[in-house]
Amino acid sequence: QVSLVESGGGLVQTGGSLRLSCAASETFISIDAMGWHRQAPGKERELVGSITSGGRTNYVDDDSVKGRFTISKDDARNTIYLQMNNMKSEDTAVYYCSAMGGGRLYWGQGTQVTVSS
Description:
This protein is mainly β. The chain is 0% helix and 54% strand. It has strands spanning 4-7, 10-13, 18-24, 33-39, 46-52, 57-59, 69-74, 79-84, 93-101, 104-107, 111-116. The strands form two sheets. Strands 2, 4, 5, 6, 9, 10 and 11 form a seven-stranded mixed β-sheet that branches. A four-stranded antiparallel β-sheet has the order 1-3-8-7, with no helix packed on it. A hairpin with a 6-residue loop joins strand 4 and strand 5 (46-52). The protein is globular and about 40 Å long.
């Protein structure tokens, strides 16, 4: 069983930056990959990007976050991060962390990010 706790959400102005954190209860040894997803009001949850236990990152294959969002991890803290720069109003969403390990997918509770103009 893996529990995930996101933090760092809040209100930011257009063009600003925010860093989200996701702390896992298990070491990354037992986790194959972790990811960030978001769900905007009235829309389905979508993948933002992921990072493997080896540190390889992948991002959604469109221009929505490319060049603005960066995923990283700190093995010592069992934590991954989502650095969001040059934020836009369309980035407003609840951001969720996920972890895949032992054939199971785990989700965090989500953290609200609101971008205001």
